[in-house]
Amino acid sequence: MASPDRNKPRIVIIGCGFGGLEAARALRDAPVEITLVDKTNHHLFQPLLYQVATAGLSAPAIAAPVRHLFRKQANVTTLLGEVTAIDTEARRVTLGDGPALPYDHLIVAAGATHSYFGRDDWAPFAPGLKTLDDAFEIRRRILLAFEAAEKEPDPALRAAWLTFVVVGGGPTGVEMAGTMAEIARHTLPGEFRRIDPASARILLLEGGSRVLQAMPPDLSQRAKEQLEKLGVEVRLDSRVVAIDAGTVEVQAGAAGAPATINTRCVIWAAGVAASPLGRLLAQQVTGATTDRAGRIAVEPDLTLPGHPEINVIGDLALARSFPARGEPQPVPGVSPAAKQMGRAAAANVVRRLAGEATRPFRYRDYGNLATIGRNAAVVDLTAPVGHFKFSGYFAWLFWLFAHIYFLIGFRNRIVVLIDWASAYWSKQRYARVVTDIDV
User: Do residues 183 and 283 both lie within one domain?
Assistant: First the structure.
């Protein structure tokens, strides 16, 4: 095995999400030694994670081993570990199991986790969806709720088991709610003898005035209508004020009295917080600041103030886009932005190594899309030839092929395409194996 060339600049990349992956790939031809650190051994295609949570896809269909992805890129060494400290003065990254990694340039792409807006005590009752473990837990809770309802003789308790609440009307919440309605109305009927799965209530709670607030208002309304057509109860201006093992309390409007929903299955899709590494970095770097979500403010070229050797990208970065014309605009926390930041950070590292000036980040917004359910989606597309908005069946087809195209690996694309085709015609979901069953 070849040993690292100590004469080459050492690049440490923290995180192999969309940003970290793109940064490492963009440096494939650079004369550098890259160490890529991630606390999991796989890259996860998060936009389809809800499909694993709702038994539509198996985990390997949307994940790829990190080592396999970089097996042919000789300048990358991958390490499995969790970063516990970053010494910006000594230029050293420390892992939880002890090793220290010196760096000449650092790219931090540690991603994000759930935010319960200061109510972390809700987490055991309302899991969020960021990792495969989260998806497995949500799948277990959804499927076992139907099993518990089948055994429950008390009508009130049975109704609670058959009431599912999704908190948050963003893309994850909308996609989760729509797919859960499909499970109840298309996948499970005929499999139970004492309950009718189609009678299950799926509630989507959104604190704002509309779902999919990043979309234009007409597409938000169309998404709401498509959800309701699937049988989802959409409650807008509804703020969650309490969650426990058997209830969710919801306040409608600013002055409404809290109402109680009896439920045994709650999915959290309402808040996102940056990795704790953001605040850790901000404490060490003079002039660095973080927002309420823990994202660290970066310079126009995605570096930290006074530390041109440190780039922060993806969900961890509070970044602005600097277009050729007009005022700088905030960069949204979406996967295309993370990919573009990864490539931009890598390009600026190469420029610094060559003694050239770095360039400010410019985000190219290609639009937004979200699926609601079978034959139902909304697309807001920005293309060089114009702006397109559409919904329904053709939007669903566009969403489907776009996600297949951006999946990592040819095998994953084929597997997902076959699984989706099978599910479309059979209306079945075969990834329904659950473990850790308490009977």
Answer: no
Q: Which residue has the tokens 């126009």?
A: 300
Q: Per residue in 90-115, pLDDT tens?
A: 999 999 987 899 999 999 999 998 89
Q: Which residues contact 59 (CB under 8 A, 6 or more apart)?
A: 52, 132, 135, 136
Residue span of the structural domain in which 40 resides = 10-114+273-353
Contact 378, 212 (CB under 8 A): yes
Contact 112, 315 (CB under 8 A): yes
pLDDT at site 184: 95
Residues 46 and 107 in one domain: yes
* 105-108 and 307-312 strand pairing: parallel
Quote helix, strand, coil % in the chain, to nearest 5.
35, 25, 40
Active-site positions read: 175
Over residues 304-348, the pLDDT tens digits come to 999 999 999 999 999 999 988 889 999 999 999 999 999 999 999
User: What is the count of structural domains for the chain?
Assistant: 2
What is the rounded CA–CA span in Å between residue 68 and residue 399? 27
* Number of continuous H segments (helices) and E segments (strands) in the chain: 11, 27
Quickly state the pLDDT bin for 7 (edges 50, 70, 90).
confident
> What are the DSSP calls for 73-94, one per residue?
-TTEEEEE--EEEEETTTTEEE
